[in-house]
Amino acid sequence: MTDTLRNFFVTSIGDMREDSLYPFYAKDLLDEEKRMLILHEQAIQQGLKLRGKGDIAVGTLFAKRYSVFVMAVISAFSLYDARLSIVDEMVRFELNGSGGMRYKTILESASLQGSEDPDLRRIEIDILKDGLKQHLDQLFQSVSEVTEASPKVMWSLVAHNVQQLYVRLMRGQWGRLTERRLNRIEQDRDLWLEPSETNPFAIQLQPFEHSKWKGPLLYIRRYCCLAYQVGDGDHSHGYCNSCPKLTPDMRLNNLLQQ
Prior knowledge:
By secondary structure, this protein is an alpha+beta fold. It has helices spanning about 1-10, 30-45, 55-80, 120-145, 150-170, 180-190, 250-255; strands spanning about 10-15, 25, 85, 90-95, 100-105, 105-110, 205, 220.
C-alpha cells in the first residue's frame, strides 16, 4: 500500500513529527497569511500571478492537484481496506517546484472492521465521504476567497478524477486483483458515486465516444481546469485529454499519440 500511494499518488504515510520535507499543513490554507504565502508560491511555480489574470487558474489547479490526495485516500480504502487521516492538522504537503504537491498523512486504521459486511462498508464510506466533503468544502472556500475560482468548478474537477480513478481501479491498473477485491471496488464505486443532491462526487459526466477510439473509458470534464495557461512556448501545458474545450478529433489525436 505504501508503495502504491507514494508512486501513483505522491502520498506518504508516516510519523507526523517535525518534517522539513512537508512544511505545510492543510490547516495552513485556512490561515489568511499562510494561505497567501502558499498560493503565491504555487502561482510562481506555474508561471502564473496572483492578483492578476492567472488568479482563477491558480484556484482551479489547486483543486485538481489536491484531488491527487483525495484519490490516495479513496484508493487506500478500496484497495487495502485502510483509512488515512484527513484531519486538517494531520495532512501535510510540500510544493514540488512546478506547482504540484506531495502529501503526507497518518494511517488511522490498517484493517477496517466489517469490510466484508456491505452494511458496515456503507457506514464506513459514508463517514469517509462526509469527512472529505467537510475537509474540501472549507479548503475550496478559503482558496476561492483569494483566487475567485468557483468552489463548484473545483468540486467538479475532484469528482471527475474520483470517477476516473474507479475506472482505473476496475481495470486493475495498480496490480492484479482478485475477483473478491474487484467486486468490493465495484461496490465501493457505487456507494461513492451514489446519485444524491448532497453527494458532490456523483456529478454526471459525459464519456468520450469516437468511432476510432477503442481504448479505456474516458470521462470528459465539465469545466476546463485552465492548465493551458501554465507556461508558454515549448513549456506550455496545452489542453488535458479530458478537457471540454477539445473537439472529438483533437481528443482522439492526443490519445493516440500517447
